[in-house]
């Protein structure tokens, strides 16, 4: 029995939905009206405004990841110390919203920020259209992606190590910082990757919650395709996509460097 | 228990359907004229904006002509262009806007209309024909379907001064209560007007001035919107927004505290025309559908459903003064005189696009 045949459907899938679209992106970035040229690409690269949008996206992605980590770690830690059955039940409650479509949840937030909350607070204006609102909804959407790998790592932690630490005279704080935290690095790393990458490519949240005020890189790419599509010009959008792809690759590479154990759900 | 539940659901569905059916009665005799609508058959692929036709009228047309209509929705003129450019484009009928039609004519993408097959074209207001001649000389390729202006919809509870200038959108009194329309040509266009320039300007300095003006607005602007602006305004969540007259007309119905104004500096008058692409297959049915849409009763019912203004004079006569006297729905001549039609900007579009990117990332 040759096992490798089982991989064929997967290879076909990869070629169709990963390799072919990539070829298209590169084709349109460097090919204008049938000739290969870097001119168009260079024009996009030298546009300072595009880099400012990228910077804003990176800032917001960093912010989202940091807040998710600060919120997610205690949650995962508490969950991992609970009785297995209780923890299981609570984590299910935690992940139930994720069964609902991401766009729907974002729309729900829009309704909350636009009508429900202002009405409760008696505020005249809506709460959408601010950087804080965008950040908050991003954190809400991606928090489970941080908690999940952290919970996995922490719950698999060998409890006898903690007892040993206690036996050798370390207090709770010291045990946490010298034993628990270093051992949970793989979980932290994959949590960061799983939040940072979708956050930097975020598109729906800034579009629906930001009132068009916080155009992130994904929105910039959409804009490039939408506005210029009438002229059949895909080069700017493709070039921007490649830049974003490079950013994602770099951040994943950095994260992989830290993740020596190759544990948890790394994306590459 | 289950049975009772499904019974209740069925009743609810029925009442919902009944509620939908309370639109104007179409006089069957007017359009069911055997000579006018003979059997055609085949399929007709219509590409149109969402919510931009009374779908019951499509069923009526199918019933009259035996044509199976496939109604496909689009979200932007640009999307439509991509679809029509593809070599195996199946579309027979489409409803693009003014400046796009100009571009399509330039690129030779359109089929000339055969007016012998559209006798109802006579129903269209000659005044509208005249304006649309600006981008389609002699209406060789297109007929107006809906039209309107761009203006300011404002809440009179929050704004107690008369709205006469675009300048109110830059008034710090209304900081955080102003929404702009998320569309490149409209937003830059009205800013150009406010600064005293033309909407179809080819001057880089003027576009740059409009760009800086919109960037300057950022601190007091609540955001950008499109279709969502209606509910925002109806719920009193903003003092004012830039909007199309058709949407304003719909929102003002039942909301006494909303008002619409076209500022004195002038604005844009826009048209969505019906066209037949060169690649169309069922040209016979396409013409029949255009003729059908221009039937006075059909056009009246359609405009009532959509809320956008029909250029069909015969339809307006049926609808009466509720519509014709309404300045939002049917702007009087003095408003039209200060409005401009958008033109295709050709290669100059790049200048607008660059300015737009800068504006949208200015916050």
CATH architecture of the largest domain in chain B: 3-Layer(aba) Sandwich
Count of domain modules of chain A: 1
Could you state the order of secondary-structure elements of chain B as H and E? Answer: HHEHEHEHHEEHHEHEHEEHHHHHEH
Largest two-chain interface: A-B, 30 and 33 residues
Distance between the termini of chain A: 29 Å
How far is the first residue's CA from the last residue's CA of chain B?
A: 56 Å
Strand content of chain A: under 5%
Shape of chain B: globular
Please identify the oligomeric state.
Answer: heterodimer
Helix content of chain A: over 70%
Q: Strand-residue fraction of chain B?
A: 15-25%
Portion of residues in helices of chain B?
40-55%
Rg of chain B to the nearest angstrom? Answer: 22 Å
- How many domain modules of chain B? 2
* CATH class division of chain A: Mainly Alpha
Assigned CATH architecture of chain A: Orthogonal Bundle
Uncertain ranges of chain B: 17-24, 30-34
Global mean pLDDT of chain A:
86
Query: What structural class results from the helix and strand content of chain A?
Result: mainly alpha
Task: Write down the secondary-structure element order of chain A.
Answer: HEEHHHHHHHHHHH
Could you say which overall geometry of chain A the principal axes of the C-alpha atoms support? globular
